[in-house]
């Protein structure tokens, strides 16, 4: 079984949960002996782990025919792609994409991020997909998230191979209901054209069915899992006088940071010896700093700014409580990461991961009383902390990408 | 002659209200009266009243041949007195027939027997007093909370003067032995042990509808036991009649038909005390670790299986001595309500039967918040900074102070009289 996957991010250079999920899923699927995955991303950095799949950078795929010699190509992109492959892919150019701005190799410069001209990048990604669809050998197309749906759809139209799309989030989650019509259009068309739709949670599945009018039989939930940390033992918890409660993620409307501040204020009214940390950055950060001082808790409420790589796990491991009060979270992998290092988690019922976790506290995102109560219980009652820590860790260690991969495989087999 | 001995257990918990940590120190009423009342009314209407009426008819029509025993927790009796006194009256009627026996159990349906012998005795006495007050006869047989039993608990039961108790048919205790005999305590032959026939009891309680059980078939099974197996003990919650098995399943007709078919097969009905008195035990049962009547393992894990439950039970029974120094009625009442085994069951991850919480953690948080407030109240009366022994002495001094004053006053009078002379 050969799968051609379109993604947008791949570790180690990631901006959100999409990259982590793409990595985990493909790694889990690669354990199936007959699985061959070609993973396309806009702009690889060359340090991606390619031991279990093949990565193609869209920025190295020629879409306009340019004459170049082997040595020049080797000099330009030899680090990330073999020149022979470049010439082989060049044979797949069947359409005229001269309207697109390309470089001296006939390739498009992708940012690989989420720039202002994102819609243009998505369209350019389509052009790359056409070349790959003509040249690469595959049985099925798998598109991760809306940015890659058009590419997947185009590849399907050219090759006639089935398309499955993987919904990691919808615009309804990102915007609290204020959807962008362009984005909705892209999402809707991708779903209409897909042979099957996978969603990361039942919550998202319902949105896909109700808001995008998809037939329920066409939509299946494949919950995310979490990749085991190889160096989990190296993250330790320092003994401190004060307990630490942490929020970690983009400080945006979707993540519900204001509920965390309000819950913190409730807890601090009644208790001493607890500190609150808001890690991450985002457009609501300043508003949150204001809110914390308005509530008069700034001396106990700290901001760290953006954390990355190891810092994230260190922050999680050092905390006594992790809290994710997301207003709408298609899945939300970070509580699983927190539980992996033994930190009890409080999650909103409006997050997809709540569907598969038992040993985490679930509250409504707006229920700051319940949230404050849960924080209080975990920091004050040792049995609560111990149970959540130990049983939570066991639970998360049993949620494996391999199993998620098997579910994806069943879907592949059903559309072939 | 073969006999059937029925045990009907009645217990309805007092439900806790949602109690947040910021209520600690602010609000001292912990209960959700609406839910508690609704549940008890529901049980009364669907089960207790109809079942009592059915049993009363059965006793009459069988000329007193049908007999059964009841174990009603003290907390439930109080709830019934408050919300459904007609049920108490109907039990009094039943009691007058002489064909029912009321058994003793810990007042609060608590796990005190496992943790705290003194508290256990206190509660059992309280319960027996209450039963005697209501029905005019002091219980002589014992039915522990959730049929929890071990050699140690048996010893306490016997010491308190009860002649028999019932244990569940736990494979690791009975081994090849049949439950259909009378046994005795491992080293105290005075205490007779009845063993619940768990297959037949559960057939009736949980599988009645699915098995489309009939009285004829049921009695037929009983009659097919080997001839020397003389006593079949059937113990279940009373709400099996009408709630677990709703009236439309025909459970009441089943009950009504039992005596007729039993007589056909020369099977009688007995009460625990009578039967224990006139029957010799065939063997002793040794139960080193407590057993219960729940699950396949018949152990205490549904109440004390995880860290949450263990922490709560430890914290709770640590306070027993201090609480019992108090004379504060509301505090003592809360102390009892907080001991109900139900609260512990709701904290089970696997087997939170009857819970009103979404998760075990929810149950734990709520309970601990309530308990924290309870502790604060207790602390204002008896500071935890003072050792228990010292506290006891202080309390004795305070209690004796009136006598002391009286004594001294008398002395003053005497001296004054002397002086006057």
Kindly describe this structure.
The complex is a heterodimer of chains A (416) and B (421). With 416 residues, chain A is of the alpha/beta class. Chain A has two domains: 2-225 and 402-415, 3-Layer(aba) Sandwich (Rossmann fold), CATH 3.40.50.2000; 232-397, 3-Layer(aba) Sandwich (Rossmann fold), CATH 3.40.50. Helices cover 41% and strands 14% of the residues of chain A. Chain A contains 15 helices and 13 strands. Chain A has a seven-stranded parallel sheet with strand order 3-2-1-4-5-6-7, with helices on both faces. In chain A, strands 10-9-8-11-12-13 form a six-stranded parallel sheet, sandwiched between helices. In chain A, helix 9 links the parallel strand 8 and strand 9 (274-279). In chain A, helix 1 crosses helix 15 and helix 12 (334-340) crosses helix 14 (382-397). The radius of gyration of chain A is 23 Å and the shape is elongated. Chain B has 421 residues and is of the alpha/beta class. Chain B folds into two domains: 2-285, 7-stranded beta/alpha barrel (Alpha-Beta Barrel); 301-381. Helix content of chain B is 51%, strand content 12%. Chain B is built from 18 helices and twelve strands. In chain B, strands 1, 2, 3, 8 and 11 form a five-stranded parallel sheet that branches. A five-stranded mixed sheet of chain B has the order 4-5-7-6-12. In chain B, strands 9-10 form a two-stranded parallel sheet. In chain B, helix 2 packs across helix 3 (85-96), helix 9 packs across helix 10 and helix 13 (307-318) runs parallel beside helix 17. The longest helix of chain B has 33 residues, at 388-420. Classes of the chains: A alpha/beta (416), B alpha/beta (421). Chain A binds chain B through residues 266, 269-271, 358-359, 361-362, 369-370, 372-374, 376-377, 380-384, 386-388, 390-391, and chain B through 20-22, 24, 306-308, 310-312, 349, 358-359, 361-362, 364-365, 368-369, 372.
């Amino acid at each position: 079984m050969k799968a051609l996957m379109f993604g947008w991010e791949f570790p180690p250079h990631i901006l959100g949960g999409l990259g982590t999920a793409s990595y985990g899923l493909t790694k889990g699927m690669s354990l199936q002996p007959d699985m061959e995955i070609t993973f396309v991303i806009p702009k690889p950095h060359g340090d991606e782990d390619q031991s279990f799949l093949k990565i193609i950078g869209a920025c190295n795929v020629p879409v306009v025919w340019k004459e170049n010699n082997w040595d020049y190509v080797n000099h330009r992109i030899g680090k990330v792609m073999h020149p022979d492959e470049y010439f082989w892919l060049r044979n797949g150019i069947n359409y005229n994409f001269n309207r697109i701005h390309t470089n001296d190799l006939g390739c498009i410069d992708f940012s690989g991020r989420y720039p202002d001209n994102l819609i243009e990048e998505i369209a350019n990604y389509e052009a790359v997909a056409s070349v790959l669809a003509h040249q690469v050998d595959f049985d099925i197309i798998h598109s991760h998230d809306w940015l890659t749906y058009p590419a997947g759809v185009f590849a399907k139209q050219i090759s006639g191979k089935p398309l499955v799309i993987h919904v990691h989030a919808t615009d309804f989650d990102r915007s609290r209901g204020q959807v962008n019509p362009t984005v909705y259009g892209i999402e809707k068309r991708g779903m209409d054209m897909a042979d099957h739709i996978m969603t990361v949670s039942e919550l998202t599945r319902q949105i896909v069915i109700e808001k995008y009018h998809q037939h329920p039989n066409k939509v299946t939930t494949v919950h995310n899992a979490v990749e085991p940390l190889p160096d989990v033992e190296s993250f330790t918890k320092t003994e401190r006088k004060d307990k630490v409660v942490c929020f970690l993620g983009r400080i945006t409307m979707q993540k519900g940071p204001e509920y965390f501040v309000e819950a913190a204020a409730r807890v601090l009214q009644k208790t001493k010896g607890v500190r609150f940390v808001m890690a991450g950055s985002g457009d609501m950060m300043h508003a949150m700093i204001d809110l914390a001082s308005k509530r008069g808790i700034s001396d106990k409420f700290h901001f760290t700014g953006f954390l990355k790589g190891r810092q994230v796990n260190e922050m999680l491991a050092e905390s006594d409580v992790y809290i994710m009060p997301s207003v709408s979270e298609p899945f939300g992998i970070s509580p699983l990461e927190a539980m992996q290092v033994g930190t009890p988690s409080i999650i909103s019922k409006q997050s997809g991961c709540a569907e598969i976790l038992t040993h985490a506290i679930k509250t409504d995102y707006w229920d700051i009383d319940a949230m404050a109560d849960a924080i209080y219980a975990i920091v004050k009652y040792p049995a609560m902390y111990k149970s959540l820590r130990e049983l939570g860790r066991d639970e998360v260690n049993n949620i494996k990408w391999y199993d998620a991969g098997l579910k994806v495989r069943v879907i592949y087999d059903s559309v072939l | 002659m073969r006999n059937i001995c029925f045990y009907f257990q009645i217990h309805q918990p007092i439900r806790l209200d949602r109690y947040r940590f910021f209520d600690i120190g602010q609000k001292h009423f912990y209960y959700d009266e609406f839910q508690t009342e609704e549940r008890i009314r529901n049980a009364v209407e669907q089960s207790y009243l109809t079942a009592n009426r059915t049993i009363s008819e059965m006793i009459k029509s069988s000329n007193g041949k049908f007999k059964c025993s009841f174990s009603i927790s003290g907390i439930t009796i109080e709830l019934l007195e408050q919300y459904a006194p007609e049920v108490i009256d109907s039990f009094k009627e039943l009691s007058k027939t002489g064909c029912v026996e009321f058994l003793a159990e810990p007042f609060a349906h608590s796990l005190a027997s496992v943790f705290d012998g003194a508290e256990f005795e206190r509660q059992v006495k309280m319960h027996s007093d209450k039963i005697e007050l209501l029905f005019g006869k002091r219980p002589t047989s014992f039915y522990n909370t959730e049929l929890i039993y071990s050699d140690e608990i048996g010893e306490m039961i016997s010491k308190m003067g009860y002649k028999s108790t019932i244990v569940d048919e736990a494979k690791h205790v009975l081994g090849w032995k049949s439950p259909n005999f009378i046994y005795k305590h491992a080293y105290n032959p005075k205490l007779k042990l009845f063993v619940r026939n768990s297959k037949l009891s559960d057939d009736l309680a949980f599988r009645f509808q699915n098995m489309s059980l009939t009285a004829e078939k049921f009695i037929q099974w009983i009659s097919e036991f080997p001839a020397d197996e003389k006593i079949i003990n059937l113990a279940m919650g009373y709400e099996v009649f009408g709630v677990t098995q709703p009236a439309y399943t025909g459970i009441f007709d089943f009950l009504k038909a039992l005596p007729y078919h039993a007589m056909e097969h020369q099977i009688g009905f007995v009460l625990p005390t009578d039967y224990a008195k006139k029957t010799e035990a065939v063997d002793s049962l040794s139960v080193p670790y407590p057993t219960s009547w729940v699950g396949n393992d018949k152990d205490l894990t549904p109440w004390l299986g995880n860290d949450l439950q263990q922490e709560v039970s430890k914290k709770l029974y640590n306070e027993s001595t201090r609480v019992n120094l108090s004379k504060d009625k509301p505090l003592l009442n809360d102390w009892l309500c907080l001991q109900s085994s139900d609260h512990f069951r709701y904290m089970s991850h696997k087997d939170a039967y009857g819970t009103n919480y979404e998760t075990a953690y929810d149950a734990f948080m709520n309970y601990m918040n309530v308990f924290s407030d309870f502790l604060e109240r207790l602390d204002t009366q008896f500071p935890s900074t003072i050792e228990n022994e010292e506290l006891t002495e202080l309390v004795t001094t305070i209690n004796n102070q009136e006598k002391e004053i009286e004594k001294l006053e008398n002395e003053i009078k005497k001296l004054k009289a002397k002086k006057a002379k």
